[in-house]
Specification:
It is globular and about 60 Å long. The strands form 6 sheets. It has a 7-stranded parallel sheet with strand order 3-2-1-4-5-9-14, sandwiched between helices. Strands 7-6-8 form a 3-stranded antiparallel sheet, with no helix packed on it. The N and C termini lie far apart (56 Å). Helix content is 34%, strand content 17%. It contains 11 helices and 18 strands. Helix 1 packs across helix 7, helix 3 packs parallel to helix 5 and helix 8 packs across helix 10. The longest helix is centred in the first third of the chain and has 22 residues. It has a single domain, classed as Rossmann fold (3-Layer(aba) Sandwich), CATH 3.40.50.720. With 372 residues, the protein is α/β, with parallel strands linked by helices. The structure holds nicotinamide-adenine-dinucleotide (NAD). Nicotinamide-adenine-dinucleotide (NAD) binds next to helix 1, strand 5 and strand 10.
């Protein structure tokens, strides 16, 4: 098949491109080489067998050029970080699906399927359980609570501490501009796709790791931020108390989910969590990473927090498992492969996290609690 991968120069996109080529598909990439991700231009890992179209998913002419002869689209291009340029998230992440569908419908392009990247971020704080009042989906923790260094979620009915639960696909509560824009893209793809007979599949990835995860963009992704600090013999700075739970997934496992979505008609017009299936605290992650890097540096609990972070977010992956997928790569191996790749990157030590860190402080995204 002739397949278009938007964001195909990026981390997940490029691994998806490799896998599609390996399966014998023809692949075209549409990517604008966003400078924060690719400050040095086109990455050397782009295979010569893939056709590269430099273009922006916000631009009609670029889509029209990229869609010629295309049968399947993987829409992975996105704007993702923690900054306050809210409208950019919507322009890139929410308008581009509408534009893509608009062009397909207007020109009658016979696209057989669109597979698109969403995110675990659409759950916001996810699901919690109170021993007395049962399950609930909390609102984000108010700034005043975070400033008091009260990190855990409390039951809105009795104020007792609640326990996190694995979050399945049913209840959404996006609360960052990135998450809202991703959820909007889901609504467009699933509903307009069904209405116009274009099969669409949404994949809500958990935190994804592996080689090619651009270390230039240090606004998000603890692996890239922590590893750069460790490379410079600095302690990874852990926000809150470091006990926040996350689930992490290897990029190879993500790619297998991307491929499954293409071949599996039961996935059409559905969205699936694609996660590691295991809860790991930020401190545990920091230790796994230091071990992989051979550094005996303890994480630093700074008494700070990042406004907009969730407390615990762990995806329930049973829905995709029912279609025969499951994560295979242990976190230790994922981290090792990232570290190995990173150590072969000449300028990875460059301290890109420092600029990002300062900008997030200026933007009042990283703040200090009064009672660390
Ligand atoms: N990496 C993760 O942990 C993670 C988690 C959940 C969801 N996702 C989603 O997966 C997808 C891929 O993420 P990634 O980690 O590979 O990101 P990435 O930044 O490595 O790749 C994204 C690519 O999109 C391109 N791009 C950005 N804006 C564009 C635009 N306006 N027009 C054309 N191209 C543009 C960038 O140049 C880059 O090559 C994204 O949709 C992201 O939201 C990623």
């Amino acid at each position: 098949m002739h397949i278009l991968v938007t964001g195909g120069a990026g981390f997940i996109g490029s691994h998806t491109v490799d896998a599609l080529l390996k399966k014998g598909h023809r692949v075209r990439i549409l990517d604008n080489l966003q400078p924060r991700v690719h400050p040095k231009g086109i990455p050397s890992y782009i295979p010569p067998d893939a056709e590269f179209v430099k273009g922006d998913v916000r631009e009609r002419v670029d889509w029209e050029k990229a869609l010629k002869g295309i049968e399947v689209v993987y829409h992975l291009a996105a704007y993702q970080d923690y900054m306050t340029d809210f409208s950019t998230f919507f322009h890139v992440n929410a308008v581009s699906p509408a534009l893509l569908l608009e062009i397909i419908v207007a020109k009658g392009i016979p696209v057989k399927k669109i597979i698109f990247a969403s995110s675990q971020a659409v759950y916001g704080e996810g699901k919690y359980r109170c021993g007395t009042h049962g399950d609930f989906f909390p609102a984000p923790r108010p700034l005043a609570q975070l400033e008091r260094a009260e990190w855990e979620m409390r039951c809105p009915a009795c104020n007792s501490e609640a326990t996190w639960q694995f979050t399945d696909e049913t209840a959404l509560s996006p609360h960052t501009s990135y998450a809202i824009s991703k959820y909007t893209s889901e609504l467009a793809f699933i509903n307009l796709g069904r209405r116009y007979g274009i099969p669409t599949v949404g994949l809500r990835y958990s935190i994804t790791h592996g080689p090619r995860n651009s270390f230039y963009n240090a606004y998000s992704g603890i692996c890239r931020i922590f590893s750069q600090r460790l490379m410079n013999d600095q302690a990874p700075v852990v926000f809150e108390d470091g006990l926040q739970k996350r689930d992490y997934i290897n990029v190879g496992d993500i790619v297998r989910a991307n491929l499954l979505a293409l071949d599996e008609p039961r996935a059409d017009w559905e969205v699936f969590n694609v996660g590691g299936g295991k809860a790991v605290s930020v401190i545990e992650f920091a230790h796994i990473l230091s071990r992989a890097m051979g550094k005996e540096i303890q994480p630093l609990i700074s008494g700070e927090f990042r406004f907009g972070d969730t407390r615990h977010t762990v995806s329930d992956i049973s829905k995709l498992k029912r279609l025969g997928w499951e994560p295979r790569v242990p976190l230790e191996e994922t981290v090792r492969s990232y570290v190995e790749w990173l150590s072969g990157q000449g300028d990875a030590r460059g301290g890109f996290y420092q600029d990002a860190d300062q900008e997030m402080r200026r933007g009042k995204i990283i703040m200090k609690a009064h009672r660390p």
